[in-house]
Every structure is written in C-alpha cells, then in structure tokens.
Amino acid sequence: MNFPLNWRVLSLSLLLVGGTALAADGTPKAAATAHSASMQQRPGHAAIASANFLATNAGLEVLAKGGNAFDAAIAVASTLSVVEPESSGIGGGFMAVLHRAKDGHDVFIDAREAAPAAVNRKDYINPDGSPNRDAALKGPLSAGIPGEPAGLVLIAKRYGRLPLQQSLAPAIRIARDGFQPDARLRGSIAAEQKTLERWPASVAKYLPNGKPPAEGVIWRDPDQARTWELIAAHGDDGFYHGETAQKLVAAVRAAGGNWTLADLASYQAKERTPITVNYHGYRIVTAPPPSSGGVAIAEILNILSGIDLTKMDQAQRVHYIVEAMRRAFRDHNDYLGDPDFVKMPLDMLLSPFYADGLRQGILPDKATPSSMLPRAEAPEPGMHTTHFSIIDADGNMAAVTSTVNYTMGSTFVAEGTGVLLNDEMDDFALVPNKPNVYGLLGSAANAPEPGKRMLSSMSPSIVIGADRTAVIGSPGGSTIITQVLEGILHFIDGESAQQIAAHKRFHHQYLPDEVMVEDGTFDPATSEALTKMGYTLKQRESWGFMNVVTWDRKTNKLDAASDPRRPSGLGKVQ
Fold it and tell me: Which positions carry the signal peptide feature in this UniProt record (predicted)?
C-alpha cells in the first residue's frame, strides 16, 4: 500500500459539525466546493468519510501504518469519542457491517449497549403511568452498559491487521495533547449546560471555569486518554474489569444508578449474520436485530421491487416509497427486539411473498391512514449519533454507526474515567405503545430486561452491484432508516457519493401519520399532488449527517462524501 508522504487533508465544518470525506491520496476532485469533497482514487488507495476531520485523519494514519479498513475503523471510532462526544463514544455503543475482501465474508458487529441486571421499569415511569423522560435520558439510570470498547477489541482481534495499541494511538494522543473543539461540540455543551451542572465530573470535563470551552482553546481529556491506554494495553479487561470498571461502578452507584461489576464483566460484543436483500441487481448487506433498520430497509425494498419507480413522476414515486415506509415501521413497532431475548418472525418480515401482500394493499392514488395505534407526536429526529464509511486498498469495507443516543448522552461523566455515559435506556419500550424521544412506539418485544439490548434504528449498510459498490449510513434517530433507504435508491439510480449525501429527504414512520419533509424536497406541484392523495406534509429542519463512500470497480475510482447541509466554517486544505 503506497501512500504519498505529503497528504493534504480537506476538512469540512458543516454548520456546528466538522465533517470530512476524503481518500488516502488527499487530492480533492473539487477543492473549491465547500460543502463536500470527492477524491480521485488511484490503484492501491483508500477512502474514508466521517463526521470530523481529526477522526478521518486518524483512520488515514492507521492505514499508512499498514492497517486495513477495520484497523482504521477502530481509529476513527475512538477518535470520534474524543472529538465528537455529543454523538458517540467510549460510553456508548455501535453497530457495524464489515466486508472482508479476501473471502467475501460479511459480518455484523453488535456492540449495542445492554440493560444492567438491576433494571426496573418502575424507575422510568411517573406516578401517572407516563414515561419519566428525565430518568430515561439524564443521569446514570439512563445508561446501558457500554459496548463500544468491547466491539473495537473484537474487531481488532478478528479482523484487524495491526495491534490494538497502534489503532488506538491517535485517539490517545489527541485526548492527551488536546484539540480545538468545533462549533457543534461547543454548542452541544452550551445546550446541555444545565443538565451537565448536575454532575461534578461533567462540570470538570465540559464546563471549565463554569462555561463551555471557548472557540480556539486547546481542550484536553487526560482521563479518557488513560482509559483508552488501559484498553490498548489490556483489551476488554482494560474497561470491563479492574481500575476502570471499579471507577465506573462507584461513580454510577454514588449518583443513584444500579450498575455492578458483574454487569460490566458479563458484557460481550457479538458477531451476527447481516441481513441481505437483492434489489434490481444489487445486493444490500445491512444490520439485523437488535437494529430495526436492516429489517425495515429490506422490507421496504421488497415491497418496492415489484414497482418500476423509474417510470413514475415524483409524486407517484414518493407515494409508493412512503406507503412502503409506513408498513415497515408498523412491523418495526410490533415485532422487533433483541434476538437473544425475543422470537421474531424474520422469515415472514423478510419474505418477498409477505412484501407482495403488503404491496397489494397500496392504493395507486390514495394514502393509507395509519390508524391502528394511538397517535404519537415525534420531536425533531436529532443528530445524536454518528456514522463513518471506509473502503481500503484491498477492498475491505466498514460501515459503522456509533451513538450515545441523545445529545451528550446521559450528560453524566463517571469521575476519573473521562467516560461520558449513554442514555440508551430510553430506546427500550419503557411504557408499551408510548413513544420514546424519537416518537417511536414499541411493544413487549422491546421491553427492558436484565442484559437485554435495546432496539436501535442504526442502519450501517453496504451495497454491492455488478460494477459499483457503496458504503453508507447516517445519524438521525428514527430517520436513519429512511435516509439510508433513500441513499441506497439514489445509488442504484447511478448517482455519485456527493449527490447521494446532498439529496433532500423525506420520512414516514407509521405514527405520527405525516410525511416529514426537508425544505425544498418537493416542488409545489408534487406537494399539491401528495396532499390531494391524503398526505400531511410537515417540514423538518433537523436531518442526519450522512457519510458515503462509493467505488466504481471498472475504473477503480473511489469517491467519499460528507453531508453538505451545514455551511463550511473551518474548511481548509492542509
């Protein structure tokens, strides 16, 4: 693998987010374009698209040391934990679809968080029976047992080429030596300041001198550096046993949580078989439960496979896609959960014959009302997750979606560890058929139980055609599923990475019965036609931050693109 020594790195800061999409040769195809960048691929080179240029650089650094896409994924994920803690990190979890080129092996890595053994639904329910959102979203009771450290160790052991110490070295160095927080991180800290102030260790880490870090300051995280150093030296034992585990449990229990050392010691990241679906000559490899995303995407594509969308005008195309979304999200709510705890009718849900029946129920000129469950109002879907995509010189691929759930997770930092805990307990159906923070409903299949993993919308995916391949994913709460679906459809339509990431988006999740629409998605005639069909269109301002890598295997050209929705504030060529 021969990389130029004088790489140039194009870093994109897209509204409150520093994003990067680049290939290892570092030469932008359109350097003047502030919102996205594509890189000309040469034989023997690689591409990474992530939400922060420091994380992308970390991945490239590891590739230059002889690592593969999986080593680079470890570097990117651990660095994002340091520089983008509002979205993901060491105290959260991830889901990944990996493709190993040498033997065509596809695998799903489940590093989703898990409920502690002492979980009690009563802790998350108000006296009137409604969900207690504060308990579910803030403080140690909201946190599941983290999965990211175990997942990265598993990837290093089974798929990486380098020692774990080398892959974690960039994150450790950045945490120890410091970096300049970007506008999005500073804004997230400011938005969550009142909650952060509840916890002394959170104040010490995120509110130096009682305020969020100022623009241009160097911010260091020595406690997190120490925790990553222990993981680098001892693998799983560096987090789930010994010094770190004792500090985590002591901090959580002192603040009213219920973790035990046994909870940490029993956690394991898992390899699962991905979901695969064929659609118009492309094979889509995507996430199985405890992700709901892959099942929903496969079900939607199976419904649409019997329809020629290319012969329809925009209103008709959107109509059929929305109706397929509606039906898939209904099944999402009813059936899906942790496969180690719940028997799910996946054979039925993934069957083309089941999709045929669902397709027959779609009227050609009229919306189908979502009336089977009580109406639920969904808040803004948010951007509290991150995704990155990697293709290396050998054709190995990694689609990784990582999260701490809501902005800044639980806002609770475990003293002495630098670990900001997730608030994933809200992703359980804490009260059946009552919406979570993303407006998603759930049944007993997703009820909390000791050791159980909460359902997720994360949908990391790889799309493989005869001549073209894409690695794709996005944050965005419940809209992750539909954003990735729409990205897959655009890729199959022949669009570039930049076009896919830039496309305007729409979303339907069964309840509430409305089509969430990004401003400018539909022209007036299309909006009017959809309204006449019976759709309620509701504008949404908050969408995901998609990161896409595409590979034209005929020309051996790689393109990488980050979402252009946020204006460039720190973009520069180095």
Answer: 1-23
Burial of 194 (0-12, 13-18, 19+ CB in 10 A): exposed
CA angle in degrees (0–180, nearest 5) for 49-383-297: 75
* Residue 406, token pair as written in the block: 């809501």
Look up 469 and say whether it is catalytic. no
pTM of this structure: 0.90
Residue 12: predicted pLDDT: 27
Contact present, 455 and 427 (Cβ < 8 Å): yes
Phi, psi of 536 (to 5 degrees): -100, 120
Q: Specify the residue for token string 């890189």.
A: 39
What CA–CA distance (Å, rounded) separates 537 from 540? Answer: 10
**Annotated active-site residue in 20, 56, 385, 482:** 385
Residue 40 pLDDT greater than 80, yes or no: no
List the alpha helices (DSSP H) in 113-208.
133-137, 148-158, 164-177, 183-191, 193-196, 200-206
**Alpha carbons 144 and 122: distance in angstroms, whole number:** 16
pLDDT, tens digit, 9 for 90 and up, residues 423-452: 999 988 887 656 555 555 556 788 899 999
- 3-class DSSP state for residue 283? strand
Residue of 426, 402, 406 whose CA lies nearest to 142: 426
Determine contact, residues 155/70, Cβ cutoff 8 Å.
yes
Q: Map tokens 């189908």 to a residue.
A: 368
249 within 8 A of 264, measured Cβ to Cβ: yes
pLDDT digits (tens, 9 = 90+) for 507-517: 999 988 999 99
64, 391 in Cβ contact below 8 A? no
Contact 433, 441 (CB under 8 A): yes
pLDDT at 338: 93
Q: Which domains does the chain have, with CATH numbers?
A: 36-122+131-271+408-422 (no CATH), 272-381+459-558 (1.10.246.130)
Whole-angstrom CA distances from 481 to 220, 301, 346, 485, 544 are 35, 12, 17, 6, 11
Query: For residue 363, how many other CB atoms are within 10 A of its CB?
Result: 11
Burial (Cβ within 10 Å: 0-12, 13-18, ≥19) of residue 202: buried
Q: What is the mean pLDDT of residues 7-11?
A: 27
Residues 100-144 have pLDDT tens digits of 999 999 999 999 999 999 999 999 999 988 889 899 999 999 999
